[in-house]
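Expect sequence, tokenised fold; for instance:
***
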Amino acid sequence: MLQITDLTVRYDDVLAVDRVDLCLEREETLALLGRSGSGKTTVLRAIAGLVPLVSGSITLDGSDLVPVSAHERGIGLVFQDFALFPHLDVGANVAYGLRMQMATRIEERVAEALEMVGLDGLQHRRIDQLSGGQAQRVALARTLAPRPRLLLLDEPLGSLDPDLRHSLAGELKELLDQTGVPTIMVTHDTEEAFALGDRVTVLVDARIAATGTPAQIWTEPGSVEVARIVGHNGIVTAGVAGSVASVGGLRIPVTAPDGTTTLLIRPGAASTGGPVEAVVIESRYRGPDWVISVAIGGGTVEVSSPSPLTSGDKVGIAIDPAGVTTLD
């Protein structure tokens, strides 16, 4: 229902978004994941009509959005800081956008929106009396009240403390699934992107580097940059001959041409007690086991261990080929 083609945005001499293609299905949530400066928020602002385009097209339900002003696009945007009006109570905040859309039934729609986010009965609560999670839900209610065709979330959990972010991620996912509003969210947090996104698009240096389901992005990131963004550490260099990669004495079947390749050894693929000797770099407790980082193939691989080892110790490891993939 949303189609973006060849989207390019510049800020003076800075190329912020470079020829980005995106699509969004009905009732789908797409997470844009990337580090600061990758272009993800600029994509969101371009869809909302808040920044001019150098080139590209944006269509929503088959209609060209580019010539349409921001307030006429029927798009709801929730900012990271929620942007609630402190001098208005909860009900008045939610009603703010409705007054430009309807003259009657405003109170009824406010009540419906608050009930939708689990805050029914709090119309008269002051903004400074809300918890962080309640403020987030008021911001969502205000955005959902006018029934937007598309919802945009800019770091929706970014201003909350870690414990609250973890608990609210599940609530937000459930709310998005219940409302069925197609949603694009941006985040720099991999766990948040995987928890909320039906699909995840990873941006690197203003361009799309990978798109897929959370499971696809995790198991087959495709490139070193994407692997590091999603939190992988087991990235090593290996020589390849006859579809067999050799790394630190290990021989692993791969689909790669002869020469040198980069391998991702996913968490859980390496174990102790194997035939190959590796040097311990550090031990970290991550209950109920210890995580041992070992040097191999010019990189580091994490191995679970029932007890800690000292830096410099040698340990035998084995690697399950099913947990290994090649990277560009």
About this structure: The longest helix spans residues 162-179. The domain at 2-223 is CATH 3.40.50.300 (Rossmann fold).
